[in-house]
Specification:
The chain is α/β, with parallel strands linked by helices. The protein has three domains: about 140 residues, Chitobiase, domain 2, CATH 3.30.379; about 325 residues, TIM Barrel (Alpha-Beta Barrel); about 140 residues, Alpha-glucuronidase, C-terminal domain (Alpha-d-glucuronidase, C-terminal Domain, Alpha-Beta Complex). It is about 40% helix and about 10% strand. An eight-stranded parallel barrel has the order 6-7-8-9-10-11-12-13. Strands 1-2-4-3-5 form a five-stranded mixed sheet. α2 links the parallel β1 and β2. α15 packs across α16 and α17 packs antiparallel against α21. The longest helix is centred in the C-terminal third of the chain and has 33 residues. It is globular, with a radius of gyration of 26 Å. It starts with 18 loop residues before the first helix and ends in a 10-residue tail after the last helix. It binds 4-O-methyl-alpha-D-glucopyranuronic acid.
């Protein structure tokens, strides 16, 4: 197997070194017997053989003397049909009877994709059973069991029953057909379109293993800024080859469809959704796709944004557009995921209000197989945003929550930023749509309104880099997203701990400090980039580094549009006296945001234009507080560096050095952000940088003149 280059992600299966614990695991888990021979059962058996083999076998270990079988992985149907068939599972009816009763009870909770892990004991041995209502659930159970062993969970704490809260747990790749990746910072696209379908890289299987191990069950392969070619016969055979690889792992494939494809592929003169020829075209296209990929998931569509064509080009609505595609896919059980990230050709008075204004009037009009995909906040994956006001405002429409794993606005794959606290902040936000407890999580999982479909998605941060995500810690965001899509109530710190133990080591001397470092990293990044609710002040186009002075081009793509700094103060007034975007939230939430005294300070400048001398909770003026936050952010990165250095003896050299070098870049860039922003805002505040802080040693002009060439992902 390869060395510590990050390729194996959290599936390293490092041998359990404690001989007692290893012995206990061996007695319970060896041999591992996965019943059935479906493709999923076979990959589950293979993973268990590989994983447990590496975790539990040492050349000095004695063969397992227990006569009964150790681990049994099966479905409810298999459990009911084996009826004491000792050869099938190695246990007799004395064990099977009680086991069946226990498992039956638990499986009522597990749904179609969940599982239960339970202990069994019999006269001739004892072990664990992983049971589920489907082979898919059994596979997730096996991966979970491997996680429990990898994190050295005591045997008596292994019993569990769990089911995913969200139906579709998905990644969106912004991968282009030429293998460039929009906003990708980890190499080229994984999908080698040129060689597909003839060469199917083994890496696709490892991708599928990683996805399934965290419960992800869908992937959209290509960029939402899509190319119609993906719908041609040539590319459908390539998509089908990928779907074949992912199928045993129950990962459904979606593609991003271009609305104007009927024209661009040369078949029609129009893409008008109400034109009968257009309807017939999409119906034929859907039939063709399903001939290639019988379990095709459906289309992700971005219409009317970033120059993409949409139904509005024909005077039609989002509903007309989405329902056109939904009608074509419905006979095949396909879904349309229609993005609410839209731009108007007119520059709006407040970009934050646009999606709400365009979509809320259509609530209840979308077809049954349409979901509307909404970014976590109303602007664009900023380091911090309030939750998107569409959550809670479209009760009749299933809403997909979209996060961005690729760190477009969080320092690319150069900065260590663990995003689970951001995800959790959004998921636990209370929209108050149906009284308190109406969290974004409950809207997205469908439980608040009883929707049949539910989905959570994230823009992938994966590329051809050997370690998949560029920064050795960036894979933690992929991992955490999967875990929270499975259960949005999981604790980000616990997820970080799992990931660290599996990715690096179980040594608590490493795990505890590294976990603290991860948990603080997002707030640190907010502080050195966009403290107190500032947003969208990055450089233009490539979005690398600070650019608060940006004032040219389409106004809602500039920075000055958002920070609104002037002689009096700074911040976007979104109350009644300004754009009144607060009115898009429910009355309780609106009241809290609208009142400067109750608005969380983290979001102050998002909702208010605040005088420079406004007294903050710390007792400082706003200007002083802003400076302190920027300085605290940059200082915190230095503290991360010092902390990381102390961990050197505890992990492998290659990854230690890689992270160390990236932290040095992060420290440099945090200073860059700090100094550029403080100096720029000082031109408005006309106040001194507080004396306790060392002033920047370069002038503002230096930062304004920084130019970058060939920035990735642009
Ligand atoms: C795929 C941001 C990014 C764009 C991206 C867009 C979107 O604006 O900068 O690159 O386009 O979001 O989510 O559609």
């Amino acid at each position: 197997m390869p060395g510590e280059d990050g390729y194996e992600l959290w599936l390293r299966y490092t041998p359990v070194s404690d001989a007692t614990l290893r012995g206990e695991y061996r007695a319970m888990l060896r041999p591992a017997n996965v019943l059935g021979n479906s493709p999923t059962a076979l990959v589950t058996q293979r993973e268990l053989n590989y994983g447990l083999g590496r975790l539990l076998e040492r050349s000095t270990d004695q063969p397992n003397r227990s006569t009964g079988s150790g681990l049994i992985v099966l479905t409810r149907a298999q459990l009911n049909s084996i009826a004491g068939n000792v050869d099938a599972v190695g246990v007799g009816e004395t064990v099977l009877g009680p086991l069946r009763a226990l498992v039956e009870r638990e499986l009522d909770e597990a749904g179609s994709e969940g599982f239960t892990i339970q202990r069994w004991r019999g006269p001739s041995g004892s072990g664990l059973v992983v049971a589920a209502n489907s082979d898919q659930g059994a596979m997730y159970g096996a991966f979970h069991l491997l996680r429990l062993v990898q994190t050295h969970t005591p045997p008596q704490r292994m019993a569990t029953t769990t089911a995913p809260r969200v139906g579709l747990r998905m990644l969106n790749h912004w991968d282009n057909l030429d293998r460039s990746v929009e906003r990708g910072y980890a190499g080229s696209s994984l999908w080698d379109w040129h060689l597909l379908p003839d060469y199917v890289s083994p890496r696709y299987t490892d991708y599928a293993r990683a996805m399934a191990s965290i419960g992800l069950n869908a992937t959209a392969l290509n960029n939402v800024n899509s190319n119609a070619l993906v719908l041609t016969e040539e590319f459908l055979t390539k998509v089908a080859a990928l779907a074949n690889e992912l199928r045993p792992y129950h990962i459904r494939v979606f593609v991003s469809a271009r609305f104007s494809a009927p024209i661009e592929l040369g078949d029609l003169q129009t893409a008008d959704p109400l034109d009968p020829n257009v309807r017939a075209w999409w119906a034929r296209k859907a039939d063709e796709i399903y001939r290639h990929i019988p379990d095709f998931g459906g289309f992700v569509v971005m219409a009317k944004s970033d120059g993409q064509p949409g139904p509005q080009d024909y005077g039609r609505s989002h509903v007309d557009g989405a329902n056109l595609l939904a009608e074509a896919l419905a006979p095949h059980d396909g879904l349309v995921i229609w993005r609410a990230f839209v731009y108007d050709h007119e520059v709006p008075e407040d970009r934050a209000k646009q999606a709400f204004d365009e979509f809320v009037p259509h609530d209840g009009q979308f077809g049954e197989n349409v979901l509307v995909q909404v970014k976590n906040g109303p602007i664009d994956f900023m380091p911090r945003e309030p939750f998107h006001p569409l959550f809670g405002a479209m009760p009749k429409t299933p809403l997909v929550l979209e996060f961005q794993l690729t760190q477009e606005y969080l320092g690319f794959a150069t900065h260590l930023v663990y995003m689970a606290p951001l995800f959790q902040e959004v998921l636990s936000s209370d929209t108050q749509a149906r009284g308190s407890g109406s969290t974004v999580g409950r809207i997205v999982d469908g439980s608040l309104e009883g929707h049949q479909h539910s989905a959570m998605t994230a823009v992938a941060n994966i590329g051809t880099d050997r370690n998949w995500c560029g920064h050795p810690f960036a894979a933690a965001n992929w991992y955490a997203f999967g875990r929270l899509a499975w259960d949005h109530r999981l604790d980000p710190a616990r997820i970080a701990e799992e990931w660290l133990r599996m990715t690096f080591t179980n040594n608590v001397k490493f795990v505890e400090p590294a976990k603290r470092l991860m948990m603080e990293s997002r707030e640190t990044c907010v502080n050195y980039m966009t403290p107190l609710g500032l947003h969208h002040i990055m450089a233009g186009s490539h979005h690398y580094g600070p650019g608060p002075w940006l004032d040219q081009g389409r106004p809602d793509w500039t920075s000055v549009y958002y920070h609104r700094a002037d002689q009096e103060g700074i911040g976007f007034d979104r109350t009644k006296t300004g754009s009144n975007a607060v009115a898009q939230y429910s009355p309780e939430v609106r009241a809290r945001f609208e009142n400067i005294g109750t608005c969380p300070e983290e979001l102050l400048l998002w909702f208010h234009h605040v005088p420079w001398d406004y007294p903050m909770r710390t007792g400082r003026t706003l200007w002083d507080e802003l400076c302190h936050r920027y300085y605290a952010g940059a200082e915190a990165v230095k503290a991360m560096q010092a902390q990381w250095d102390l961990l050197e003896p505890l992990i492998d050299r290659a990854r230690f050095e890689h992270v160390k070098a990236l932290l040095a870049i992060q420290a440099k860039e945090a200073l860059w952000w700090r100094d550029a922003c403080v100096l720029y805002f000082q031109t408005f505040s006309k106040r001194r940088i507080p004396q306790v802080l060392t002033p920047p040693d370069r002038p503002l002009m230096y930062y304004r003149n920084v130019k970058h060439h060939f920035v990735p992902g642009n």
